[in-house]
Specification:
This protein is an alpha+beta fold. It is about 50% helix and about 25% strand.
């Protein structure tokens, strides 16, 4: 009886660990959805989720790490205000069938920003470096 209980507990632990290793993020079906998911994740301090919706290259990763460091230096009140802020889309500009520029602000700091969203391998992903250098 003790062996069956121990095996059952071990199986349960393995199942729980396996379920924790993956993410539950769904690929964005539109540019607006990809941009919104990225922006929302940054506002909430969920940088793993933000990275999922971002083009994986060294410059983007470095820029996201800078934003993460800045976010972690904010007070708990500021973090709360950002996490509860709404995203306000000022414009969604279609450059071509695989590139959009989203002009947005959030309801907390109201600073206008832009992100470029690109369709790659049937996924809409943010090219975060555009936010800082503005090149198409």
């Amino acid at each position: 009886m003790k062996t069956i209980r121990q095996i059952s507990c071990n199986i349960l632990v393995v199942i729980l660990l396996a379920s924790c290793t993956g993410n539950n993020y769904l690929p964005a079906e539109t540019a607006l959805e990809g941009g919104r998911e990225f922006i929302d994740a940054c506002l909430k301090g969920d940088f793993d989720k933000a990275a999922f919706y971002m083009i994986d290259d060294s410059v983007n990763t470095e820029d996201l790490l800078k934003i993460k460091r800045d976010y972690n230096l904010k007070s708990s009140d500021e973090k709360y205000n950002y996490s509860s802020a709404s995203i306000i889309i000022n414009a969604d500009e279609t450059i071509n069938d695989s590139t959009h520029i989203i002009n947005y602000k959030n309801s907390y700091d109201k600073i206008a920003r832009k992100v470029k969203v690109i369709k790659r391998n049937d996924r809409w992903l943010v090219d975060f470096k555009y936010t800082f250098d503005g090149n198409l």
